[in-house]
Amino acid sequence: MRILTCPGQLQRLEDALRRSLPASLPVLGAVMTVARGNPAAHQVLVDSWPDFTVVLTRLHPEVPLGEGNWGKGTGAGRPRWVLSAVDWSRAFQMQGMQDGVHEAVNEVAAAKGLRVKVYRYRAMLSPEPPRPPGPGEAGLRLAPLSPSHVPLLNATWSFGGTGRSRRFLEGLVRALPSACILDPRGRPLSWSLVDPLGCLSHGYTVPAWRGRGLSGLVLAALGRELHARGFPLYCGVLPCNAPSLRALHAAGFLPQPGTFYMLLSTPK
Hints:
Helices cover 31% and strands 25% of the residues. It is of the alpha+beta class. A hairpin with an 8-residue loop joins strand 2 and strand 3 (55-59). The longest helix is centred in the last third of the chain and has 15 residues, at 214-228. This is Glycine N-acyltransferase-like protein. Keywords: Acyltransferase, Transferase.
């Protein structure tokens, strides 16, 4: 196992991962986030260098959980090697698009007496910056999210409602790009964030404002910023989430082959 920190090595790894798109999307996004300031305090590990066959990104072991993170990581390559670098005593969230990784995680977790929740998403990728749906409504304005908006985000997130999720969301808002539509009183109506894997996430529109093109404006604004930084524009959507899929299609996102897995493990 080798930890990469040299900018030249990270750039070489990034170039190699781009040649393996779309299967490498989560790993590429994480490596790029590390190489561009590492706001999420992640490490990049490979099995060997420069001829590597496995890549893993994970939260730095010295960073305590609860300080705006959830042990999020991703990996590509031999699943069992990836899992050997995971600290199973800490809560973690793993994402990836590699076949077999969720079966390997479940098998290792069962042997340790742990339970893992598996979520299967459809990966969506925009080859170009998303197309805005048109001009916004009068009185509304685009802005980044602020820490004062975190209670609303935490209350509306399907995995939210806890102190850990609140701290995780606040860490994203403080460290990574985001965009939202604010009403005349400064209240968020629609928003999206970027997670440590460079993935568009936590997209939400207040129910009373749905169907009015606000999510498209948010995606276009955040997508332009990410595209300017060289990031791939991608996200994962539950196959049953028809409204989000329609909004992404309208913005120029295309479905990708394979399954985008998210696995959650919480120790007893």
